[in-house]
Amino acid sequence: MALKEKAERAFNLGLAALLAENVYNFGEILQHPVLDALKNTREQWLIDLLQAFNIGDVEKYESLKSVFQIQPDLRMAEIILKRKITLLCLMDMIFAAGGARALSFNDVAKRTKLPIEQIELLAMQALSLGLIRGSIDQVDEKLNMHWVKPRVLDLRQVATLKKRLDQWTNDVKHMSTLVEHQATDILS
């Protein structure tokens, strides 16, 4: 396939992923070799935008706004894109929180750049779409989440997962040692 045709397909594929109503996983497209056709070109911003969506990076999304607003389809879908990036941001926060998945409305508001009054609605949207599972504590203004929809992970997310597994391994070793010492007391 000619490089120009490959770049056109990559661009259209990237746009389709961003504009698709129920697509909340960008890891696969980011790993696909067809996107290499856009690297170091004037369409590099599309790869950067896909990466921002993949990790729910609202700041990067905001910084790329002036560039992607030139593309008519993305400009017309600004409200949908903003909703999608904030949902992905929430998903990433829950994933990164690990075992302690209680997030305050305030923390979510800071990271998503949404007013605190909209955090409950954001969580309800994510719950209704099946992106997360858990409960909303309106009194304490906390989101208590116990599951986030699986996605293809990038290296940063794999490192987060490794850190959690290392912590879990240490906790199991500590508990094992504690049980050994307690068992000696019980058996004697």
Automatic annotation (TrEMBL):
PROSITE patterns: PCI (PS50250). InterPro entries: PCI_dom, PSD13_N, PSMD13, WH_DNA-bd_sf. GO terms for cellular component: cytosol; nucleus; proteasome regulatory particle, lid subcomplex. GO terms for biological process: ubiquitin-dependent protein catabolic process. GO terms for molecular function: structural molecule activity. Keywords: Proteasome. Residues 1-150 form the PCI domain. Component of the 26S proteasome, a multiprotein complex involved in the ATP-dependent degradation of ubiquitinated proteins. This complex plays a key role in the maintenance of protein homeostasis by removing misfolded or damaged proteins, which could impair cellular functions, and by removing proteins whose functions are no longer required. Therefore, the proteasome participates in numerous cellular processes, including cell cycle progression, apoptosis, or DNA damage repair. Component of the 19S proteasome regulatory particle complex. The 26S proteasome consists of a 20S core particle (CP) and two 19S regulatory subunits (RP). The regulatory particle is made of a lid composed of 9 subunits including PSMD13, a base containing 6 ATPases and few additional components. Belongs to the proteasome subunit S11 family. PANTHER family: 26S PROTEASOME NON-ATPASE REGULATORY SUBUNIT 13. This is 26S proteasome non-ATPase regulatory subunit 13.
